[in-house]
Amino acid sequence: MPRRWTHAALVLIAVLVTAHLIHRGWALWGNDPPPLNITPPPLVDGAMQSMQSIPGGVFTMGRAGHGPGAQRVELAPFQMDATEVTNRQFAEFVQTTGYVTVAEQRQWSLVFDRPTGRWRKMAGADWRHPGGPDSTIVGRDALPVVHVSWHDASAFAAWAEKSLPTEAQFEFAARGGVHDRDYPWGQDVAQSTKFANTWQGAFPDADQELDGASGLAAVGEYSPNPFGLYDIVGNVREWCAAPTAARSEPGLRGGSWVSTAEGGTLFVWARQTAPAKFTDNRTGFRCVKKGEFGMTNDEGLMTKE
User: Fold this and answer.
1) Prediction pTM value
2) What HEC string does the chain produce?
3) Do 9 and 75 have their domain in common?
4) Digit-coded pLDDT (tens) for 146-184
5) Do 5 and 65 sit in the same domain of this protein?
6) Are residues 277 and 147 in the same domain?
7) Quick one: 161 and 23 in the same domain?
8) N or C terminus: which one in the chain shows less Cβ crowding within 10 Å?
């Protein structure tokens, strides 16, 4: 090999090693890398048609004193849907496969009743009829699909050759590369109206609708986080991959359109759980794929060769 080629190769290797050490230094010493400047994908007919690449890395998952507490987790790169799965996307899945959801099979689901502020078991409520048997999704293609169980979400993900995100992947993505925040946009919950569809005001008395939405909103209506992900909190809370512990219920992340600042479900580290067959009109999902680089196990964690 000519000497000039050897020199060029050594310079390239030095640059790559330095970049790797800087990244590891951010992760291991607790100094967060600056937010990534990622251009969100375009909206097509009111709905997102792409995934965003999430770089992976080491971060502190959870929060001390809350739920399972805090733990250091290393994730391989992965891709995540820019938005929640929409009615149009789910309809394509059903039309192609003939799939029948859990709510359709048992012929009921839970619907939020605004006058009473309670969740009602409503016959005939399902993903095609989100408000009950007399409602429809006609003209609501770009809204997130709801009344889907963990089983339904998993079936869609398998059909799409994707998977549901692990809770670690969801939280890492929600943080957007900035790990010292309670919300994807920062620490001030008052800014939520720019980034999320949530409940403003005393729950359940009245939603002030300061974010411009009454109930569900179309995907992509609010500003994305630094990773280009829309509605990563608010709108619908989202199913995550089932935990490995026996008899544990799947996790739900992100809060929803009925979440308030006081309720605590909008924090990037907040989690809920529900039975795998649970359905209501505040629960949906989005999917992930493994990244092009890096070996991962089923939890999305880095593995050793």
Assistant:
1) 0.79
2) CCHHHHHHHHHHHHHHHHHHHHHHHHHHCCCCCCCCCCCCCCEECCEECCEEEECCEEEEEEECCEEEEEEEEEECCEEEECCCCEHHHHHHHHHHHCCCCHHHHHCEEEEEECCCCEEEEEECCECCECCCCCCCCCCCCCCECCCCCHHHHHHHHHHCCCECCCHHHHHHHHHCCCCCCCECCECCHHHHHHHCCCCCCCCCCCCCCCCCCCCCCCCCCCCCCCCCCCCCCCCCEEECCCCCCCCCCCEEECCCCCCCCCCCCCCCCCCEECCCCCCECCEECCCEEECCCCCECCCCEECCC
3) no
4) 999 999 999 999 999 999 999 999 999 999 998 888 888
5) no
6) yes
7) no
8) C
